[in-house]
Specification:
The radius of gyration is 22 Å and the shape is globular. 29% of the residues lie in helices and 22% in strands. The longest helix is centred in the middle third of the chain and has 25 residues.
Amino acid sequence: MRPPLRENAVSYDVAVIGGGPGGLPAAIAAARAGARTILVERTAALGGAAASGLGILGFLDRAGNPALGGIAQELVDRLVAVGGSPGHFRCPVHNSITPISPDLLKIVAVQMCQEAGVDILFENELLDVDIDPSDTLRSATVYGKLTKTRIEARVFIDATGDGDLAYLAGVPHTLGQDGTHTMQPSTLMFTVTGHDLDRFFAFLDDDPEEMGIKESYAVDYDVDFLRRTPGHCFIGMTQRIAQARAAGAFTIPRNQFIYISTASDRQLAINTSRVTRIDASDPVQLSKGLETGYGQVLELLDFMRSSMPGFEQVELSQIAPALGIRETRHFIGEHRLTMGTLDSPTTSEEAIALSAYNIDIHSGTGDGIDLQVVEEPFGIPYGCLVPQQVDGLLLSGRTISVDSTVFAAARVMGTCMAIAESAGLAAASAVETGGSVKDVDVARLRADLHDQGAILPGMPARSAVGVHTY
């Protein structure tokens, strides 16, 4: 007789589904606030995109002022202490970059959860939800190792990135960019070693046109900036990519090459893979996207060795454990932040996080990027985390309710971490009061966040920590 699947049932105050930047701080914050908390992650590691080697954006605004504090800064401080990050570096293009070690981040993330009392459930995929007649989310069923686990909770937090939990719960949503539904492309991140940056920089001295950002906002983005800034992002090689494409040796729909520093000067993260025209919330398209990404890794290694001086002996170090997804579903919340409401009084007065990155839209059909500078950081109101039509659920990370242009700035890891901390504290507050997440006292939430180090509009500013200015 065939043995049946095992079935478990557990109960918590707060259940966070997804252990990436939108979930990790949420679970830690909820547990520290006294809520019994479980964090469910579908892979074998916490960190999400941060576990790919991709540097974290969003810690500093365009003027170099800190925009993130709290758990996000604590995570970086702890990484710095173990050699997992050199801190924050200003950037003329990205405002700031915070290089990290992907593997040390996985370790520190688990340590922070353990210390807070978070129960972690690795390698479990969301399977189903239960909604009661009052449209309140009561349970979620996850599956892993031949076991279905039914999780009951007072409040759930969707940190799945694609909003799988909110989708199953019936929260209204759109797909992709407003008007076109085109989604920004995905990337399979990987890291390399064996490069010689001194030789590469000498090549750029002789051929400065291969420094790819020529827009007026990128003042001082030159070879000297790369030399003096350990935490940097290189964008360029436009001419050599065009030459390789003409010769049939470069088929990736990307017009520039991008690498990003990591915590180690012996390792670089390559952010040049580009998988277009897929809906990564569809499992078949996601799988095809991964197939495409793996092929692009080999093609990029060949390009580096043949066309980038200093990269002739480069070796593959690690491929990210998952495809990096920029955009899929956008959910509709009690408040939807739009470009027209960024500067409204409500946005500032009810902000529970700051977004300090620029509007960065990668073409989902072509090979370019549309980057628009955001001079001042903007707030994200609490209502963006509260979904319409379903109670007992909060949106976190890139699932929040914003238009697709605002999303292009707010989607980066640093901002998602700040949003997540506020979601965790809000969930714990709703549990404490016995009320709905819709009725959380936003003024109290903002005060609690500020007390724990968060940076918010209308609150006293905090000094920069770990900021490098070159």
